[in-house]
Amino acid sequence: MGKMFEGGRGGATVIPFRSDFSTLFYYINTDSTLGLTLEPTMPPNVAPLSQAEVLIIKNWIDQGAPNEDGFIKFSDNPSHKKFYVANQGCDVVTIFDANSKLAMRVKDVGVTPSTESPHMIKVSEDNQFWYTCFLGGTTFQKYSTNDNTFIGEAQIGAGSWNTFALSPDGMTAYLIDFNGGKIAIVNLLTFSVSFVPGLNFPHGVALNIAGDTLYVSEQLGSALIKFPVNDLSNNETVSMIQNFPASGNLQIHEIAFTPDGTKYFLTCQNTNEVRAVLTSNDSVVASISVPEFPQEMAFTENFPYLFVSCMEASHPDPQKRSYIAVINYQTNSFVKNIYAGFQSHGIAVDDSNNLVYITNRNVSTNGPAPHHSSVCGGRNGNVTAIDLNTLELVPGFKTEVSS
Q: What does pTM read for this prediction?
């Protein structure tokens, strides 16, 4: 059992409680009525397992894959470090063990049989809860980080709920509806909701370090809107085309504050740049060129680096697309590009292990063929990692996740 939970070249082979996401089951199963079947059938070069034998293994996995003493892998330390990956194609979240980098659990999210597409996941500052919003859903959901128990949800109505920010005190979430042009303000204890309408295709959202000012970007424009959180009806629009003129709208995708809060950075997907802005007066102090279609950002506190996923960047190798741009956020200077996978998008820094986790969507049919299929529609993506010490990919780590 110990070897089984070391994983294979595609990541975890067994995920406790989820035979439907365990590749071991896929390859021993020859009965499509029981679930997904893949070839070559295991065990190799012998007769396939009978349906009764397959059911024994399936039921064992669905009961947590316990060992002979009843121990279920990863159950002994619920507070250990984890990272979370949204699977938009089938409404699940994959929870990874940060030490082994193995998928340890898969959690169903959402409320309807139709696909709601979880798009963003964030963990509260006290590490007690994780939250997710949905591109095609009507709720905002809260779960426990200890055992992934569902805690509650806010009814926010239909919308394209792309992004959200959490207040430092863990009491409030601010969600952005891209198509509906509004902000939903959610009380994270009572799940009561209020709305601020009238925005022009908002997308990026962030709170300053003090948590007293909310920043929202215009995805199709070049401005930020600042809201004092104690009076969201009173807002200020600030143009980000200043000091560094641009050809056309910036199309500001995301906003992220430096660890000390003195600056914030903007990904401008139309002009292929990242803009650095002083928090004190909202003046643009630098424009850093990056590869095509910059999207998400993450800072490390161990080094002066900002990591930016540039999802549609061209590459000399036609089998590759996208880069992770590395920026020195202290000097506002470009450091290097790193190829992390096909169509890199989600990004998160783990300063405890000196790693940057990257989710590579690989949704284009021009991308590399996934190693295997899954129960979800669409092509599998994968997770890779960058070593903060070397600014190179961690060798041998490329774990597939579903669409």
A: 0.95
